[in-house]
# Entry
Amino acid sequence: MADDPRADEQNSLSGSSTTRTPEADGLDRASENVLEGWPTSPTPGPPPAEPDEGDVDGDRQLGAPVVAEQPVSSEHAPETRIETTSEHAPGSLAVPPGYPLLEGEPLGGRRAVGIVVCRFNGDITSRLLRSALDELAERGVEQSSITVMPVPGAFELPLAAMALAKTRRFACVVALGCIIRGDTHHFDYIAGEAASGLQLAAIETGVPVAFGVLTLERLDQAEVRIDKGAEAVRTALEMADLFANLRAAAAR
# Structure
């Protein structure tokens, strides 16, 4: 019986798959030598922890424990108190000799004086008014020459002062009031508007308007400032006398 050529082909293929030549063995050994010592891929692990914000501080090292600061108890916190400070520097103005000098003195005489005063914070403003009236009496101003005009609050002082000044019956006007800071911005608005309004009244009319309004952080600060009423009177009378001397000098 003749040999089957297909059987011979299969035997040839199976023999070729199991029989290795010397060249193939040499290639395998060469690839092993090349791959030997080659770095392997690192085994994936958990990501490194992010440094805490406190650890990157210049005064701390990475990984050092962060100690939380203990809050200061309100019972042991130091009490904050506003101390009264000096409001002016000592000494008086020195004008060099040889210059023409035009000045006034706080003289009352026969001058008429108008006073505008707040009803608000009445306990303080009543004492300011008494201080101003006592100073006027000491300066020789008669009671009949003094007109007192109460107004609701400090915001109304400028309008009242301008109204008195526009009558041209008063040599000067004294404005008295008291504003105490609270929890809102009301203090800032009222104090600023009162000051600028009183200045405007003097500029618009040419009649001296003295600022006798207390602007306080606390009520207890008023006690040492009640003399501001008398101080405002002296300022008003001095400016009235100065303007009278100016008019007299200009008429010569």
Summary: The first strand starts at residue 113 and ends at 118. Residues 12-17, 54-62 have pLDDT under 50 and may be disordered.
